[in-house]
Every structure is written in structure tokens, then in C-alpha cells.
Amino acid sequence: MLPTLKQLQYFKSLAKHLSFSKAAEACFITQSTLSASIKQLEGILGCELLDRSGRTLVLTEAGEKVLERASLLLRDAEDLVQGARAQNKPLCGRFRLGVIPSVAPFLLPRFLPQLRELYPELQLFLREDLSRNLMIALREGRIDAALMALPYDTTGFESAEIGSDDFYLAVPSVHALAGAHEVMMEDLADEVLLLLEDGHCLRNHVLAATGGRMLTANE
Residue 94 is part of which domain span? Predict the structure, then answer.
């Protein structure tokens, strides 16, 4: 016997809220229906998904693994439905796009107006977040695609390069390098570099480009 998608949806909601009452409310069902469904799911899988011994619910180790696989199955099921509906109509229906903060204000205004004009039936939902959070959301099926800066570990996903940007050095007008047309890494070895805070991929890209040899403002 296999678990149903409905059972997996209920379990995913419960894992999110860690409360039977809140999860049931989010799924528009009664708490008893949710509880019975989770019990059935545990019976089918042959393991406990939740530790109910404490004052708050906690996912067991098995529950964590099942949640990860269930999220992928639910994502694929949603893709199947969306793909079938859009078979004769490209780019229609709901599409959830994640984008990193260092890209969003520069890229989105360039293509959104044309996208609305070409695909009026497309329901585009945007989410701005850090790369690591977007990858988690993509893996869990909470977004359909992400606009990110490469290189980044995209193992398990398809990716395509849609453009490239150069790095430019900004210095005060009185700086010794202000008039230089080209700057070598050796010229920057003793300079203090202003970077985005930890967690932004652009920070790591700049450090990688400079070989990590430059002083940073938090050192």
C-alpha cells in the first residue's frame, strides 16, 4: 500500500506548523481527520514521523527524511498538473520565481513589462531572498525557479546561464588607482574591501575573484 498525495500534504503542513490544530486549519480539515491521516501514513511507512512525548511536536529522524522526499513528490505532482494544463498554452497559470537581492532590481524591470504583454495569462509570484534560502524553497517545491548568480551548487537541478556581468572597482577620486584603466589583483592585496554581509553570494564571488587575499572591512 502506498501513501496518498493528500496524506503527504497533511504531513508537510504538520511539519511546517508543528501543531495539529494549526495544520488542520491550514488544510481546511478537522483536527481528528488530520490526526487519523498522519497515523495512517505512519502505519504505511512503518515508522513514527513525530515525537509526541514532549510539550511540543518534533519531527523524528525518519520524519525529517520523509519530509524531504515528500516535498519532492508534491513538487513533481504540482509540476505534472501545471504542465498538463499548460500543454497548449506556454507560460500560463501560476509561476513562482525566486530572485536574489543583488539581481532583482536590475533584471526584473527589464523583462517584466514585456512578459506581462506576451503572456497575459501568466500569474507570476516573486520572492526575493538569499541564494541558500531560494535553493531550499526550490527543493521543497515552494518556488518553481530561481534567478541566481553563478557559480553556485545547483546539484540535482537544471540550470542555464542567461547573462553575465563584469566586476568593476569603485574607489575615491583621490585614490591611487582612480585613473587606472585596468587593475591587477596584486594592486589590491593591501586594500580594504567593502562587501555585502555574510550570506550574500555576491560576497563569496568577489572573494573568489580576488583569491580571498584582500582585507575586508570586518577583519
Answer: 88-147
